[in-house]
Amino acid sequence: MKLLFTAMLVPAALSIAATPAAAQNADAGAQVFNTCRACHTLNKGGRNGAGPNLHGLFGRQAAAATGFSYSPALKASKIRWDDKTLSEYLVAPTKRVPGTRMMVKVPDAAKRAALIAYLKRETSK
């Protein structure tokens, strides 16, 4: 009985603990995004800069945001943005999509995860 009770409590405790950790991770991602801010905005209806506005990024086909002139390479990439594809792209954009114009890399896995958590939170508002 004790084992069953413990087995029921652990998943519940993990789900409660996951929310603050995810928020902290996203908060750390805000600092990582400061590098991206020179080219990208996040708010709905925000302007494009040297890079496109990223609002609504997750689930969207690459090079599909309106009003931005994407590279032919990114247009042809057939990428649909999710955690995995964005992480792969951010490691080394020009290796993932040769011919892309994005040069900024986020090779550190922890910083990349934090940035993705932040982007998920901020681009869905």
TrEMBL record:
**Keywords of this entry:** Electron transport, Heme, Iron, Metal-binding, Signal, Transport
Signal peptide as annotated in the record: 1-23
The record ties this protein, via SUPFAM superfamilies, to: Cytochrome c
Taxonomy, superkingdom: Bacteria
Q: Which PROSITE patterns match?
A: CYTC
**What are the Cytochrome c domain coordinates in residue numbering?**
24-123
Q: Name one Pfam family in it.
A: Cytochrom_C
Q: What protein name does the entry list? A: C-type cytochrome
Q: From which organism does this entry originate?
A: Sphingomonas qomolangmaensis
Higher taxonomy:
Bacteria, Pseudomonadati, Pseudomonadota, Alphaproteobacteria, Sphingomonadales
